[in-house]
Design goal:
12 helices, 31% helix, 8-stranded mixed sheet, binds flavin-adenine dinucleotide, alpha+beta, 25 strands, FAD/NAD(P)-binding domain, 4-stranded mixed sheet, 407 residues
């Protein structure tokens, strides 16, 4: 049967759902369909992350991440309040481990202030008051507006709001091919669409290429492993993060207190060998592995990243005791024997920009014919999702692309 939609969204992660939500808020009469290949929501990054609502201080002030995380944090908190989704207002401390890290801490503070965040540089005494378990080298950064929620819980609640607004979410519906004005679902069903929005996460580059978009990018997935602790609920009170290496787009292994008050350690940023490489043999897709390994020579010779160093430091984190010891520098009472329950791993949909040999640091939104493509929806796109949805939908309207919706 040939079906029709004004807007078809490929991918029912938090970004795809936020796009549907924003579109329907603006055009409630439109027929909006979200297609996801999986039998349930939140089976990929949107349900496999730390659930931290970032405040927005890490990102260069002229970036989309800076623009959309500060507002996304507020929008996500308001959304959770509206829908009764529990949020733990934990705040977060970024702790230093050496003199070398203090200038980076100050850079983060200045970026944060430029991005409109509430932040404070604190000393060791104030850190002890805020989080008695954490230690720092002389100074730390305090972000009171960082919070935490269940990543899957928030994603499912957003799915409900999309349905309440009249959107249709089709599960077990893989978009297998697409072009301007049409998509093909599960290899058989053809749907006529006014405008297609690509929010396919780990497969966003592949969908974009059907439209000749994003040809300079290659997907370079990175795996995040977690371990849960057996500590009583509430023993850890704040999110505790290290000072990040500014050459990488990752924030470093941290200690998260979950919305239920449990402590967990992670995630790693271990290069993954397939897009959905969650640790099972069946997750490995040889063709993807070859494509990923084919990028290594380019990465090794990139002057912007110390990829060899990243490989040396990340692969040993497969060993639980080694990973957990990393956290001891921030919270000395962490013991490998206490953190033995494996969390669900997640994979970051990180893009590699081939001409510059750089890991893309920002979100990327590119137009195509009768389509828009969200690429590199990496952290903190879960926090920023509602702001990303609003931004992309506004851009589609202001760029005049909405004319094609009814076309
Ligand atoms: C380990 C880890 C920790 C993180 N921590 C945080 C954090 O604390 N805070 C934060 O803000 N962000 C965090 N992030 C980032 C955040 O999880 C992502 O930025 C966000 O979830 C991206 O959402 P998405 O909708 O783009 O992707 P996804 O959730 O991956 O959704 C994409 C969807 O597209 C579907 N799909 C793909 N191809 C097709 C197709 N052809 N047809 C139909 N459906 C398709 C998939 O099934 C999937 O459901 C973390 C990420 C990871 C991996």
């Amino acid at each position: 049967m040939n079906q029709q939609a004004d807007v078809a969204i490929v991918g029912g992660g938090i970004v795809g759902l936020a796009l549907a939500d924003a579109w329907l808020a603006r055009n409630p009469q439109d027929r909006v369909i979200v297609f996801d290949k999986e039998p349930a929501l939140a089976l990929h990054a949107s349900g496999r992350n730390s659930g931290v609502m970032h405040a927005g201080f890490y990102y260069a002030p002229d970036s989309l991440k800076a623009q959309l995380t500060r507002s996304g944090n507020t929008m996500l908190r308001e959304f959770c309040a509206e829908r009764g989704v529990p949020v733990l207002k934990s705040g977060k401390v970024v702790v230093a481990q050496s003199d070398d890290e203090i200038p980076i801490l100050h850079t983060l503070y200045e970026r944060g202030i430029a991005n409109g965040c509430t932040l404070e540089i604190i000393d060791e005494d104030r850190l002890r008051e805020l989080e008695p378990l954490a230690v720092t080298h002389s100074k730390a950064l305090w972000s009171p507006l960082t919070a935490v929620a269940s990543p899957a819980g928030v994603t499912e609640a957003l799915g409900e709001r999309v349905r309440d607004r009249g959107g249709d979410i089709r599960l077990e519906s893989a978009v297998t091919s697409a072009g301007p004005g049409w998509i093909e679902v599960n290899g058989t069903e053809r749907v006529s669409v006014g405008h297609m929005i690509n929010a396919a996460g780990l497969y966003a580059d592949r969908v974009a290429k059907w439209f000749g978009v994003g040809l300079d990018y290659r997907m370079l997935p990175f795996k995040g492993l977690y371990w849960y602790g057996n500590w009583p609920k509430g023993r850890l009170q704040r999110q505790v993060y290290p000072v990040p290496d500014p050459r990488n787009p990752f924030l470093g292994v941290h200690l998260t207190v979950t919305v239920d008050g449990l402590a967990k350690i992670g995630p790693t940023a271990i290069p993954a060998f397939s897009r959905e490489d969650y640790g099972k043999l069946r997750d490995i897709v040889p063709k993807e592995t070859w494509q990923i390994l084919g990028l290594y020579p380019k990465l090794m010779t990139s002057k912007d990243h110390n990829f060899a160093g990243l490989l040396r430091t990340e692969f040993p984190k497969y060993i639980r005791s080694h990973l957990i010891k990393q956290a001891q520098g921030m919270v000395p009472s962490v013991e490998p024997k206490d953190f033995t329950v494996r969390g669900k791993p997640g994979v970051r949909a990180q893009m590699f920009h081939v001409p510059t040999r750089k890991l893309e640091m920002d979100f990327v939104v590119e137009p195509g014919e009768k389509s828009t493509h969200v690429l590199n929806a990496v952290s903190p796109a879960w926090t920023s999702s509602l702001a990303v949805g609003e931004y992309v939908v506004n851009r589609i309207h202001t760029d005049g692309l909405n004319e094609s919706v009814k076309g």
